[in-house]
Specification:
alpha/beta, single chain, 6-stranded mixed sheet
């Protein structure tokens, strides 16, 4: 079975909550209803940008189609779960094309892989990845025949990512846009990253090294404020009572990304964070606490 390097979510929370990291605790609700991806409801666009690099496999033939199918499957799964909860949600899915032809964009990562790009000092690694993503966003706008100098409304981060999102919202008539950059590393051990989670300074987006629908669905949900319920070797902080979360919600998409989507669910805690409900059982309020992570992951607390 293919092994995954854990998601680097909390490295991105470091960027979003940098002023809070002198404190020992952070509330996961900080990421709710923030930035571009506020609540996972209404009209949403998932927009994928395929990227080639010297260290990844090229996007050709079967790889392209299987990636498109995986994203569509993840989108359909999320819509199905929303419908079951009575949440009004319509998700469109599209990907960048030039003159109606599939064209992967070429851009080298800051290091040889996503994982190595984030094993730099965290802030430096995040800054470099943001520059990488903004450079790609500019290429997309040029390919769309759009000006990269377009003015943005007050309060919106002034970046190419913001300008691209603004263009896409107008074109597809949606409330919010999920940007996913896809690298073709299906047969290579690498990371998958969710950037600017909970930030007000830069548009959030995901970078995916695989074509796994479960990982893609988890990334989309994370961008709307869901909290990671897995330990990570690169995490600065994590939910304090991970063991309790994993016991209560063993098949929650934020706990389990290795099983197929057909057996996974969106648990009560995650539904609350992404705006699908306004109420949560008081028993689960302990899960709002994030503390500095234990790098060895030998002490996952159980709440009794």
């Amino acid at each position: 079975m293919r092994k995954f390097i854990p998601i680097l979510l909390v490295s991105i929370i470091v960027l979003a909550l940098s002023s809070c990291f002198l404190a020992k605790r952070v509330d996961t609700r900080w990421a709710m209803n923030r930035n571009e991806c506020k609540k996972l409801k209404g009209e949403v666009l998932v927009y994928t940008i395929f990227v080639d690099s010297k260290t990844s496999k090229p996007w050709v033939g079967y790889d392209i189609q299987s990636a498109v199918d995986s994203v569509q499957y993840a989108v359909d799964w999320i819509k199905e779960k929303a419908n079951a909860e009575g949440v009004p949600l319509n998700i469109q899915f599209d990907y960048y094309q030039s003159n109606k032809k599939f064209v992967p964009l070429k851009k080298e990562l800051p290091d040889k892989s996503l994982y190595k790009s984030f094993t730099l000092e965290v802030k430096d690694g995040t800054d470099k990845i943001n520059k990488w993503a903004n450079a790609l966003a500019k290429k997309v706008m040029v390919g769309m025949g759009s000006s990269a100098t377009e003015k943005l409304p007050p309060g919106i981060p002034k970046s190419n990512l913001s300008k691209l999102v603004s263009k896409l919202k107008k074109k597809y008539q949606v409330d919010c846009v999920v940007l996913l950059f896809m690298m073709n590393n299906y047969y290579i051990q690498d990371a998958y990253v969710t950037c600017n989670y909970g930030s007000d300074d830069e548009i959030e987006y995901g970078i995916n090294s695989y074509k796994d629908p479960s990982i893609i669905a988890q990334q989309i949900i994370t961008l709307f404020g869901a909290s990671p319920l897995q330990p990570s070797s690169l995490s600065k902080m994590q939910v304090q009572y991970l063991g309790f979360a994993q016991k209560e919600f063993p098949k929650d998409i934020m706990v389990d990304y290795k099983d197929p989507l057909s057996v996974l669910e969106i648990g009560a805690y995650t539904r609350y964070l992404i705006g699908w409900t306004n109420k949560i059982d008081p028993e689960y309020e302990k899960l709002f606490i994030m503390v500095k992570s234990n790098k060895n992951h030998k002490q996952i607390k159980m709440y009794k």
